[in-house]
Amino acid sequence: MNSSTGGPAEGDPFDAGAGGILRQPKAVWATAGASVVAFMGIGLVDPILPSIAKGLDASASQVSLLFTSYFLITAVAMLVTGFVSSRIGGKKTLLLGLALVVVFAGLSGTSGSVGELVGFRAGWGLGNALFVSTALAVIVGAAAGGSAAAILLYESALGLGMACGPLVGALLGDASWRYPFFGTAALMAIGFLCITAFLKEQPRPARKTSLLDPIKALGHGGLASAAASAFFYNYTFFTVLAFTPFVLNMTPYKSGAVFFAWGVLLAVFSVLVAPRLQERFGSLKVLGGSLVLLAVDVLVLGYGNHTAAVVCTILSGAFIGVNNTVYTELALGVSDAPRPVASAGYNFVRWFAAAAAPFFAPKIEEWSNIHIPFVVAAVTAVLGAAVVWVRRSALTHDAEELEPKHATEDGVTVFAN
Q: Which CATH architecture does the domain made up of 212-404 adopt?
């Protein structure tokens, strides 16, 4: 999700020439393809949540635990991923993560109760954490054309996966809520075979990462501030992702179409729009403004009619795409910690909010009414913007990383990560 805050590089990263995003080794395409499927797994269950609830005779709050268990394990696993990959290498870590996803996604489709499904999703979250946390480093290491094309390819895979997940979930889930889980297992098995065949073992880091390194990295004020702001933002993000399907109350096809459009906006604004906004206004202004606009959007989503809810759900993808890009840059560039360690510490904090929102949103509705979960989500988005404003000096580790730039050094764009 990382992206440049500088001006456009002299070479177009989409150029089919040498070093462009379209001319990459098979290993990069294999890893990127598996990344698409990995990110599909996040939104896959969105359009079939009501179907799962009906099929397993479960409440909305029980079914929302599919997200809670997934992201709770993902958060804790962030302390483990660097420890594992620095000892067994990038390729083996990817394969271990993929194997776990294949097993637990397949088991999810066999679930006889919502409790079983929640447990299997937790195992799926562990596998996804191992894979996703390692995939970017592997793509950057194996890509032709430097980090610019590699990061753009990774961002594109993320956006495509987030967009296609609900669509695949809807298409397969219309026949049975179990089929999307089996489909994901099959696709990840293909990814496992492709990475086995095409990806060479990656060099291990000179220093092994300890379990406490990500926690120690959070001692840096800038990284801690970025993580705290992202925590509030992620609560808003996953209120939209996990709770809105129950509010829309649409068929899997229609819900899948809504979240497909949401994912397309997320991808476009993450990869294409966010860097241009950062170049013009600076990262912190863009992030603060986007968070405030997201707060307004979710308020209208919660209080508007059905048409307004659909439009605001789709529109939220634009703000989420911008936020994802800027937050990742802050996490990777604001401290002196190695990028994998800084990313692990940042993700450890923010994924707890992704686990909390799906649990609390339906509970808040039960305690009050259907509007209040979105009021809480709007407040958390504003709190995220407030942290950015109050801690702006700590977040500006290096002024040239975060201010608008129009120049390049040695003929290449200066990157903020």
A: Up-down Bundle (1.20)
